[in-house]
Amino acid sequence: MSHFLQLALLLSLILLTAKAAGYVSVRFGQPSVLGELLVGILLGPSLLNIMGFSFVAHELSEVVQLFGELGVLLLMFLAGLEFQLDEMRENMRVAALAGTMGVVAPVLLGWGIGLLFGMTQPASIFLGLALGATSVSISAQTLMELKVLRTRVGLSLLGAAVFDDILIILLLSVFLAFTSGGASGGLEILLIVVRMTLFVGFSFLFGMRVLPWIIRQVNRLQISQGLLVATLITMLVYSVAAEYFGGLAAITGAFMAGLMLARTPEKDRIESGMHVLAYGLFVPVFFVNIGLSIDLRGFPTQALLFTAVVVLAAILGKWLGAGWGAKMGGLSRRESVQLGAGMISRGEVGLIAASIGMTNNLVGANEFSAIVVMVLITTLVTPPILRALFGREADREKEMPTEAEQGWASSAAPSKVEAVELELSS
């Protein structure tokens, strides 16, 4: 069987099981993303290990991973489309405080736990940094399903994730610069800050001054799906520029691309096309691939206590830290608890942090396994926690009539919330 046919069969299996698991999860009152994450673990090396089947070539695992990375870019782009710059400015104080405290609290906890369990000073600091990372893509998908992404909590959560991303990258860069023993550590840190600042400034300037004109011109051309293609190019270029030039995560660039395109009159058409592309192929592969990358069978049982403490610190540190920051920013107690819960998930960002620790010999096998299990558990518990905290608001939203029920002929273009509802229901 050729590699192409193997990939076609593999993607068919992943998509079928992802959608089936998502349906079962919804039937049990949970977000579909929880089912997709769980089925990924079942298909992965922890149980069935489909990537190890005789008919699957080894290099196809990298292809599936790349599909998943495109999925998370699309997911964060769509989250950016839900934003408006005015709303972002209104929630800036909450986002900054929640994002900052959501890093400081788990970093300090992880540092202390490492020293308590006899780890070296550099290894303990790195453990704290691994606990400080977050991946809001899981939470963004869950809030989209619950139709509460555009609430004050949802908007503040996305902003806090951006601050979290910037702060943790700065701290990790500073840490690696000093541990490497380079004499130019201070200069490297300054260059990182300059790169981030220039990228963010240029991205906003280009997105507000030039990008709307480009989109208008493309929309006038007689090109098949020209608007969708231009949107994809914009998202990918922003993602590459964020990581390569700005020193930020690619998902931050994708989010910024969505934020910029949300200002254009073509926003609704862009959202419709990108939803089909994202949820029809790439996003389900992303969630399943998280499980495919985790092997629980190799977990060292002697590190069980250490792992349990790390997981507990990861959940409470991020939840209480980000929640406290949100409360200081002006959110109510309930809203602060909701926002803090949305920051718990580590997802693919946590796995990247773990791999950095292994590459630089900062953590051993036991510590690496503990971080991987922490990533898995925090990713799995986030959707049901959010479902429980937002359940009342989500149920009220479901009781409201949608534009589809009122008649498309007499309505304007679908709103942000309803567009997400229609896509997820299909």
Written description of the protein model:
Helix content is 77%, strand content 0%. The protein has 19 helices and no strands. It has helices at 3-27, 32-43, 60-81, 85-90, 92-116, 121-132, 137-146, 152-179, 185-209, 211-220, 226-244, 250-261, 267-292, 304-329, 333-342, 347-359, 365-399, 403-406, 416-425. The longest helix has 35 residues, at 365-399. It is globular. Mean pLDDT is 85; it is low at 400-426.
Summarize the SSE layout with pairings.
Elements: H1 3-27, H2 32-43, H3 60-81, H4 85-90, H5 92-116, H6 121-132, H7 137-146, H8 152-179, H9 185-209, H10 211-220, H11 226-244, H12 250-261, H13 267-292, H14 304-329, H15 333-342, H16 347-359, H17 365-399, H18 403-406, H19 416-425
Helix pairs in contact: 1-2, 1-13, 2-13, 2-17, 3-7, 3-12, 3-13, 5-6, 5-8, 5-14, 6-8, 6-16, 7-17, 8-9, 8-15, 9-12, 11-12, 11-13, 13-19, 14-15, 14-17, 15-17, 16-17
Keywords summarizing the entry:
Na+/H+ antiporter like fold, 426 residues, mainly alpha
Summarize the structure.
The protein has helices at 3-27, 32-43, 60-81, 85-90, 92-116, 121-132, 137-146, 152-179, 185-209, 211-220, 226-244, 250-261, 267-292, 304-329, 333-342, 347-359, 365-399, 403-406, 416-425. It is an all-alpha fold and 426 residues long. It has a single domain (30-398), classed as Na+/H+ antiporter like fold, CATH 1.20.1530.
- Given as residue ranges, the uncertain stretches (5+ residues, pLDDT < 50) are 400-426
Inertia-based shape: globular
Strand content: under 5%
State the domain count.
1
The SSE string, one letter per element, is HHHHHHHHHHHHHHHHHHH
CATH C-level class is Mainly Alpha
Overall structural class, as computed from helix and strand content, comes to mainly alpha
The CATH topology assignment is Na+/H+ antiporter like fold
| Structure summary, number of beta strands | 0
Quaternary status: single chain
Q: Taking all residues together, what is the mean pLDDT?
A: 85
Q: What is the count of helical runs? A: 19
> How much helix, percentage-wise, in residues?
over 70%
What is the CA-CA span between the terminal residues?
33 Å
